[in-house]
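Ticket reopened. Same input as before:
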Amino acid sequence: MSEFYNFKNLGVLFVDDNKSMQMFMRSLLLSMNIVNIRACNDTETCLEMMAEEPPDIVITDLLFRQCDGLDLIRRIRQAEDGVDRYTPVLVITGQTNMSDVLAARDAGATEFLAKPVSVGSLHDRLVWMVENPRPFIKASGFVGPDRRRAMRGYEGMERRK
Amino acid sequence: MTRIDKMDGYEIHHPFSKLQAKVKREGGLSLAEIEKRMSVRMAHLTEEFLAEIPPMINTIERMIGKLEKGDGGAEAQAEIFKQGHDLKGMGGSFDYPIMGTIGASFCELTHKTKDVSALNLPLIRVNLDLLSYVLKFRIKNESDPKAAPIIAALASATTAKR
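Engineering reply: fixed in the latest deploy. New output:
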C-alpha cells in the first residue's frame, strides 16, 4: 500500500560543495514538495545558517574540499554557536566503508544514506526518520542519537557482513 | 521541552520531534507521484551534470601532470580523490553508473592511506581516459555496446592492480 507523507513544512539545510549535487538534491526535495531549502558548501556557513534560521533537518556529505563533515556533526551536537544540538542529521555520502559509517554514527549522525541517491531511497530514509525518532545520549565522550538503536544505513551494512 | 533522564554517568534526552510535528499524512504525495515529478526534472539536471565533467577531467589531468613531475604531493592526490568521490556519488544518481565506477576507482587509487610516491599514475591516467571516452559517447552502463572497450580496460586495470 502506498504511504502518503506531506513534507511541505520541512526546512532543509543541505551541505555539499559540489554544485551538481546541490542542484540534484534541490530537485529531489522540490519533487517532495519541500520548498524551504537552503544549501551551503562548508561547516562554518552551515553553523551560521543554522543559528540564523534553525532547519528541521541537516543533510550533509562527509567529504569537503575545505572542511570535514564529521567535524560539522560534532559541532552541531556540541550546540556550537547556539545551534539546536538535537537537529536530525542525515549523512548522504559516497564514502561507504564500514569505518566511515561508524565514524558518522560516533560523531552523532542520525541516519546514513549511501550515494547514489534516488527519490525512493531519500523518501524512504526521511519517512524512517519521521517515524522513528531516537532519544539522545549525553555522556562525557559522546553527544548524539542513541547508538544502541542503530542508524538504518548502519543496520543494513551490518546485515551484509 | 526536552525531558532529561539522569542515569549513572550519562543522560538520556527526549527532545521534541520537529519532524513528527511538521510532517503530516494529510495532503501528502505518493512516492509514485514524487518519482514522476523528479523524472521531469532529470533530463535538464543530467545535462548540467554532464557539463561539469570536462572541468573535472581538466582538473584531474592537471593534478596527474603535477604528480608526474614530482610536484603537487598530497594536495594533488587529495584533489584527485575528491573529484573521484564526487564522481562516484553523482554517477549513479544521474543514471551514469559507469562514471560512478570510474570515480570509485580514482578514490581507491588515491586514498589517503597510499603514499604519494606509491601512486600508480599510469593507472590513474587510464581511468581518466576512460572517463573522457564515457563522456564522449555518453555511455551510461556496461550494457551499452560502446562500453565493451571500457569493460576490458577496467578488467585489465584491476588485474594490473593486484
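The first strand of chain B starts at residue 3 and ends at 6. Chain B touches chain A through 48 residues (CB under 8 Å). Please confirm and we'll close it.
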